[in-house]
Amino acid sequence: MKKMGWCPTAIRPMRSGDGLLVRLRLSCGIVSPGLARLIADWAESFGNGLIDLTSRANLQLRGVTDETLQKLQERLAEHDLLDPPGMRSVLCSPLAGIDPKALLDVRPVVREIENALRGEHRLPEKFCFLVDDGGSLRLDPRSADVAFVAQSATHFRIGGPAIAPARPLGRHDNAFGLGVPFGRLDAAKLRLLADSAQELRLTPWRAILLVGGGPVEGFLHDNDDPLRGAAACPGAPSCHQGTVSTREIAVALAPVTPLHVSGCSKGCAHPGPSPVTLVGREGLYDIVFDGKAGDSPAFRGLTQDQAIQILREKVI
The whole model's pTM is what? Predict the structure, then answer.
């Protein structure tokens, strides 16, 4: 299976409009409060203080410079956070090991897969594994290339049919889920979360679970909040391929309709179709209905105000 492109890592960062992107892969999405505080410090010391929560439950430091990259990598190496050659994404049930509804603890399975990926193999850069424990927050098997779904305490099946979207926000048996609009944190917010929980669990749904924690101001608490239905990439100027700003218009239109705002035709924030997709092109917006960023638009070359007006008239 061949996939185009590649994902940034701590060893091989990706250059964007606001500097280098350095992605940290945290095994099973587990972050201790102490590590969260260190990551916040690194984000400020070596980057621009902004941190993204990715769709594969990783954290990504933004704005790292050529001058600060080596020092950051040295700190990451001290904490065993430099990916070995060959590592690929392994998504894990976010409450693995502590979910009373789970069929088994899948953390050892995830770590065995990670160990097997160290070294040489021929898997594409964006290849992704998924390990679901059958618990309260189910992962969608379609979001990975290979999915292992627990059937009992001893058996898995490979793949499976589509499942209902997870509702990670709010109270769970031993954790509280907080929504992170557009997956964007800053160092201060990450420190706040570190001070509010026994452990952080990252998810692929723009949400973080606070083990032993509760509601925290400045985050989303309701799964039905309109912002949960809005996806938007960083846009211009943070991404050098983006030609428009994205998140301001996404916030304005979120109460109107679920939507995806993409700074360019790549559609990185939401590869699938959306009821409404706004696409940046040469500083203006195109509108695609019931499609993806690369699909043929119904409207072309709109200003932000024109796009908002058209969508409010058509949707309301």
Answer: 0.94
